[in-house]
Design a protein that fits this description.
Shape: globular
Largest sheet: 5 strands, mixed
Helix content: 25-40%
Number of domains: 1
CATH class: Alpha Beta
CATH architecture: 3-Layer(aba) Sandwich
Number of helices: 3
Length: 134
């Protein structure tokens, strides 16, 4: 019997990993949305897609519009470091498309938050996790 090289991963082998990652992300986004609801936010959209990319959660509270990136990792530190500058630019571009499509939100104050999710811990909400230059 030929021994298989452990470093090579066939697409069939990768599929369960991709499915597990997808389900983990979906679970984290559900926890994050519930967490925001408990804090008095209204969820306007989840997993909103545009040509620029996806925004995990769009939420409103009062006159505030919040674009939320949800990150699930083994620790809060790992989750925080995974919100890269490239992702921040993508989220900002998608937010601009949201504002163009939802003119009612143009007058609201806007913020970019992150919700970090780690096993067996309450989600951690980082308000104003990053800023975008206009």
């Amino acid at each position: 019997m030929a021994r298989r090289d452990q470093r090579s991963v066939t697409p069939r082998d990768a599929e369960p990993k991709r499915q597990a990652a997808f389900l983990l992300g979906l679970s984290a986004e559900t926890r994050a949305a519930a967490f925001l609801l408990a804090k008095g936010y209204r969820i306007a959209a989840r997993r909103w897609r545009s040509a620029a990319g996806e925004i995990d959660i769009v939420a409103r509270r009062g006159k505030l519009l919040v674009f939320v990136e949800v990150k699930a990792r083994g620790s809060f530190d790992d989750a925080a470091y995974s919100v890269t500058p490239r992702q921040q630019r993508r989220i900002a571009s998608a937010a601009a498309i949201w504002l163009a499509d939802h003119s009612d939100d143009a007058e609201r104050d806007m913020r970019f938050d992150a919700i970090l999710v780690a096993p067996r811990r309450w989600p951690r909400h980082i308000e104003a996790a990053f800023e975008v230059e206009t």
